[in-house]
Write a structure and sequence with these properties.
The structure is a single chain. By secondary structure, the protein is α+β, with helices and mostly antiparallel strands. It is built from four helices and ten strands; from the N terminus they run E-H-E-E-E-E-E-E-E-H-E-H-H-E.
């Protein structure tokens, strides 16, 4: 089904004020948390490349993020956090392979960064879940209509 026409998302005044207030008070800011592992084995997190784009002839690297936290893992990281430093070395632009090699050494201290885009995405997901009244994972016309104007 195709929808044609012009639609503008309408943000309620209170929601817009809330977002502006969150930005003013630093709700969306980069936050670093660190953790040290001394024993060999898994860190308890999955990792994935944040972004790796090939621009002839080089790759532009944008670091590694936590893709998931294993159930029962005792780790300070959350899904979406950036692996910012390993043993004091900046890893914000390292490849997944380089980060995995650096994590193999023990002891290892990792600084995870909660980035602004990760926090904003989490905020947007929470807003979606509020609008998804029937909890179907999709928004129908009735759920969307209070947030959209023609």
């Amino acid at each position: 089904m195709s929808i044609s026409g012009h639609f503008d998302l309408k943000m309620e005044d209170t929601a817009q004020e809330e977002t502006e207030e969150m930005a003013r008070v630093g709700q969306f800011q980069e936050i670093d948390v660190g953790q040290t592992w001394t024993e060999s084995g898994s860190l308890g997190v999955g990792l994935m490349a944040r972004c790796e784009v090939q621009l002839n002839p080089q790759f532009v690297k944008a670091g590694v993020i936590v893709s998931d936290v294993k159930e029962g893992a005792s780790v300070v990281a959350e899904t979406g956090m950036l692996v910012a430093k390993i043993n004091g070395n900046d890893t914000k632009k390292e490849s997944l392979n380089e980060v995995q090699k650096a994590l193999a050494v023990r002891p290892v201290t990792v600084v995870f960064r909660s980035t602004i885009e990760q926090q904003l995405l989490e905020y947007m997901v929470q807003e979606f879940l509020k609008a998804d009244e029937d909890m179907s994972g999709a928004l129908d016309r009735e759920e969307v209509s209070p947030h959209v104007t023609r």
